[in-house]
Structures are given as C-alpha cells and as structure tokens.
Design a protein that fits this description.
This protein is about 35% helix and about 20% strand. By secondary structure, the protein is α/β, with parallel strands linked by helices. The chain has one domain: Aldolase class I (TIM Barrel).
Length: about 280
C-alpha cells in the first residue's frame, strides 16, 4: 500500500509478502524464482520440449501464452484452451507450476481449474473490471506494469485485486515505453528498487519484453537480480527464428542454461538462494 501527498510518495517498510505459486515461493527477498518458457504455446510437443529444457536450465515455473493480446488482429492470437491443456501436460511431465496470461473474465473458470499463476498483461493493467474479477478468485496473480504507467498507478492496480480479497499478487516490471526506439521498451530498474519501498509485494522482472533483443536479455536479467528483483520471467524457444511470436527476444535453452549458471553465482554473492 502507498500513500500519496501533494504528488510525493510516503515510503513504508512493510512486512514482505511471500506468494505460494503451486509450491514455488516468490518474495521475501531471500530467494530468487525464475519462470521461463515460450511467448506462445504452439503444440503439445513444443510445450513439453521447452518445459523440459528450461527445467534442466534451472527454472522452477513454466510460462507460456495461450491467449495472446497482439497489436495486429491478423497476428497469431494463441491456441486458447488447447494451449492451456498443452501446458498442463508439460506440468504433469516436469512438475513445474504453470503461468499464463488471462485476457477476459469469461476464461476465469478455465484458469482456476488448470493454471497455477494467472498473469495479467501490460495491456490490461488498468482493465479494472478484470482486476476485480481476478481479485475474487484465489490463484496467485502476476500483474505486469502497463506500457506507460507510473509506479503509483501500477500499485493501485494491484490494490484493485487485493481489495476484492486476493492478496496473492506479484508485480512484474517489463519495461515501459519511452522516446527510445532501438529497443522494444526501456527497463525501469529504478522502479524495481522503488516498488520494494512502496509496497510489501514481490517484484519480478521480465528482461525479454523489456528490450526485445535476445542478445540483451542476459545483461538485463543480471542487472535485475542486482537491483533486488525477487524473480525473473524469461522467454525461451528452441528455434527462435521460427517461433510463432516474439522470436527475436527468445533465448535458446542452451543460452538460458548459460545465463542461469551466472545467476546462481550472482544470487549466492548477494546472500540469497535459488528457489
């Protein structure tokens, strides 16, 4: 919770929340959790292959998109329920909890039945009716910061969820839109530090959407851990060139494993542990 007086933010030192995501704990500043997987689920075989790859690399949650909010109506929109069920099969094979994006209230029963962590994407950060609806269900909610929203607006969106009774909210900084055009977005690492002062909620970073370039993802992921992020969300695909969406920002499983090797050492350096 934050309090704003005359345009300034009163900082608090809250009791830090630890969110149970299907058995994986996120928050508390003692452990780092990593979720990884493809931007879009393309088939059962693809989901399983990538899930096994990211688990071998060190991820503890499997992320994947079945419902895709795309800028163009002619772009791939996701496999929908089929994609969710493909993720369920990957969970059965690997034991990893699954994270996927919800776009409409009508799909909430499906997500309550099958998904471990409900993601609300950047485009829906201020879809207040959707926020209220996910606040009335009990699955953890991963809330992404909007494309050009302030931190106060971001936290107020989280409050919409918590006000309905669901306090299991994780914040995700995924880059914001600025005047810079060489990258997809601009990662606000200062925002990660500030959010830990503004709220008791865990804060993770999505370095993939933050830049849009796979070659930049490892450096941003390392910087996020150094800035105190409670976790990472990284996009991974075994054939990025032929990915159905966002291939340019996907690491290969080998590149992801290499990154995780560094992250483990970095986490240990800061006196934390991998979750």
């Amino acid at each position: 919770m934050i309090y704003s007086v005359n345009g300034t933010v009163d900082l608090i030192e809250p009791n830090l929340a630890v969110i149970d995501c299907g058995g994986v704990k996120i928050g508390g500043k003692e452990k780092i959790a990593v979720m990884a997987g493809p931007c879009s689920i393309e088939s059962e075989e693809q989901a399983l292959r990538i899930a096994q790859g990211v688990k071998a690399g060190g991820a503890t949650l499997f992320r994947g998109g079945a419902y895709k909010p795309r800028t163009s109506p002619y772009s791939f929109q996701g496999l929908e329920t089929e994609g969710i069920l493909d993720m369920v099969k990957a969970r059965e094979a690997t034991g990893m909890p699954i994270v996927s994006e919800l776009m409409s209230e009508e799909r909430i029963p499906e997500f309550e039945e099958y998904v471990d962590v409900v993601q609300i994407g950047a485009r829906n950060m201020q879809n207040f009716e959707l926020l209220k609806a996910v606040g009335r269900q009990k699955k953890p909610v991963l809330l992404k910061r909007g494309l050009a929203n302030t931190l106060e607006e971001f936290v107020m969106s989280a409050e919409y969820i918590m006000a309905e009774g669901n306090e299991n909210v994780i914040l995700c900084e995924r880059g914001i839109r600025t005047f810079e055009t060489s990258m997809r977005n601009t990662l606000d690492l200062a925002g990660v530090v500030m959010l830990h002062k503004m709220t008791h909620l865990p804060v993770i970073v999505d370095p993939s959407h933050a830049c849009g370039h796979a070659w930049m993802v490892p450096q941003l992921a390392k910087a996020a851990v150094a800035a105190g992020a409670d976790g990472l969300e990284v996009e991974v695909h075994y054939d990025p060139r032929h990915a159905w969406s966002d291939g340019a920002q996907c690491l290969t499983p080998d590149a992801f494993a290499q990154l995780m090797g560094f992250i483990r050492k970095e986490v240990e350096f800061f006196g934390k542990k991998m979750n």
